[in-house]
Each structure stands twice: as C-alpha cells, then as structure tokens.
Amino acid sequence: MEDYRHLIDRALEARDRAYVPYSRLHVGAALLCEDGEIFTGVNVENVSYGATCCAERTAIFHAVSEGKRKFTAIAVVSDMDKPIFPCGICRQVIAEFRIPTILSGDKNGNYKVYRTEELLPHAFTEFHV
Ligand code: THU
C-alpha cells in the first residue's frame, strides 16, 4: 500500500495553525494534487458556530482557489487520541472533487486509509432537471 507518511506529516504541521477558540479541537488537513503539490488547511471557527469551516474544506478551497482541480488523497488529523473522520458536509465536498482516498489520523499521526465511496456511499454527484 502507498505510503502517505509525508501527507500526514503536512496535516500534523498545519494542525497547529487551527483557529479554535470555541471547541479547542485543532484539526489539520493536507490535500495531495495529481501533480504532487500539497495544499493544507485548518479549521477556522466563528463565534456564530455555523460559520465555522472544517480543515478539509479549507484545504480543498485553498487548492481550488489556486487553480487545482485534480486530487488523489486528503489526510485529516486532530489532537485527539483516536482518528478523526470528515463530517458529512466535508464528505460531500470531497465527493464533488472526486478525491478517491481519505486518510484518517490521530494526534500522533497513526492513520488508516479509506476509499471515499466507503465513507460516503451513494454520494449525490449530479442532477438532471
Ligand atoms: N472539524 C474539522 O475541522 N474537521 C473534521 O473532520 C471534523 C470537525 C472541526 C469543526 C470544529 O471547528 C471542530 O472540529 C469541532 O467540531
């Protein structure tokens, strides 16, 4: 199986930049582009909680803003002992960009590899009117 150690390390390093005055849960994400470039993201919270953006979406929006469209994997870590999994909204955004692989890691960088299809079966990816 492919070694995603470097991607996890980039997510861990980003995690420390999380803006989390409310939950105090630091989350870091790292997104691997098809061309090998990596974009990171952190969760950015808001006093109006619903305005919070998760680390995964920050990373994806960061990359798309820089002109990237093709991705191979996204890693997510936090400062919890157990691995963290993307929320439902982030899974939907991961599906939108057809990112095939999700790496779920814990605070020490231990991680497991999942297929996006496993974590969001029957994703809504197109519509017709
Ligand atoms: N959060 C993420 O950034 N990614 C996840 O995968 C799950 C949750 C954030 C949102 C909020 O800032 C904090 O973690 C607690 O929910």
Could you characterize the architecture of this molecule?
The protein is 27% helix and 23% strand. With 129 residues, it is an alpha+beta fold. The chain has a five-stranded mixed sheet with strand order 2-1-3-4-5. Strand 3, helix 3 and strand 4 (101-105) form a beta-alpha-beta unit. It is globular, with a radius of gyration of 14 Å. Tetrahydrodeoxyuridine binds next to helix 2.
Question: Which properties best describe this structure?
Answer:
129 residues; alpha+beta; 5-stranded mixed β-sheet; 5 strands; globular; binds tetrahydrodeoxyuridine
Layout: helices, strands, pairs:
Elements lengths: L4 H11 L11 E7 L4 E5 L12 H11 L5 E8 L9 H9 L4 E5 L5 E5 H4 L10
Parallel strand pairs: 3-4
Antiparallel strand pairs: 1-2, 1-3, 4-5
Tetrahydrodeoxyuridine binds next to α2.
Strand fraction:
15-25%
Radius of gyration: 14 Å
Fraction of residues in H or I helices: 25-40%
> Could you give the order of strands across the largest sheet?
2-1-3-4-5
| Contiguous uncertain segments of 5+ residues | none
How many DSSP E strands? Answer: 5
**Terminal Cα span:** 41 Å
Main sheet attributes: strand count, strand direction, barrel closure: 5 strands, mixed
Separate helix tally: 4
Q: State the shape.
A: globular
Bound molecules: tetrahydrodeoxyuridine
Structure described in brief:
It is built from 4 helices and 5 strands, in the order αββαβαββα. It has 129 residues and is α+β, with helices and mostly antiparallel strands.
